[in-house]
Amino acid sequence: MQVRSDMASTRRDTVAVSQSDESTMSQGAQTSKATLSILTVSLNCLEHFEITATSLPDVLPDWVEWIVVDGKSTDGTAESVGKDKRVTRWISEKDAGVYDAYNKALSLSASDYVMYLNCGDALCEHALDFIFTAIHQKNTHSLQRSVHCFPIRMLASDGYIWKPLPTDLGKAMTVPTPGVIFPRESLLAIDGFDDHLRVAADYEVLLRLSQLGHPFSVHNGVVVNYIGGGISSDHQHLAFFEECVVQLRHHTVTGNDCLLRAARRAVQELAPEDIPYKRWRCAIRIGKKLLY
Known about the structure:
The structure is a single chain. 38% of the residues lie in helices and 16% in strands. By secondary structure, the protein is an alpha/beta fold. It has a seven-stranded mixed sheet, sandwiched between helices. The longest helix is centred in the last third of the chain and has 15 residues, at 255-269. The chain starts with 6 loop residues before the first helix and ends with a helix.
């Protein structure tokens, strides 16, 4: 898989393109290295960007930088990004999708850790305190930096708290990406996100890091209010398909497992009363009892 052949050179290229007419980049880069980069990607989402911006402290701690990658918005989002003095670095240029933008943001970061805070998602009040404590804990079990996992609050699901369960990543997406603090060098070492995937590249990255033996640390403390929605919600069948592709790629399930899950999904979504033939209605009812 070739997601991005040289993330280091990409970073230089991305910074260089800021001087052209096709891209805009802020000039106020921090001189001291930050510990955490908050990475935000945007495209024509001014209202949602302002929700995210409002959730950040008025003055960011000196160990935090904020990087924004805009997809050449035309609704005023880019202008709002450019006016925000907390933004350390930003660009506005066309991209090949959300995961391409994720990789661009990663290449612009200059910290030990990164987290992805998408437009519309809000950082919780004490989130930075929780994160600071976690990333400064000594890891006595591995020479590698841990992938730190926090719970998030699902606003679209009546405030449900999604708690990370990295031990079950082989079965499903059990770690919420907005609550993940990634070691930057670990992401760079695996060439970032697979931007050939439209929905499940964040799941694929987490599964890849897990299989490579990177330690995962689970923490308490909700760090993000997650707005929900997005392409995975709008295209649930695509999300299911790509999840199966990722699991098959990394050999965490068999083809038969995926077929059985597909059958369960189909049966679950079918209503017997909508089936025109009596025998089929009977089969669906039996299937629901057997598969669930």
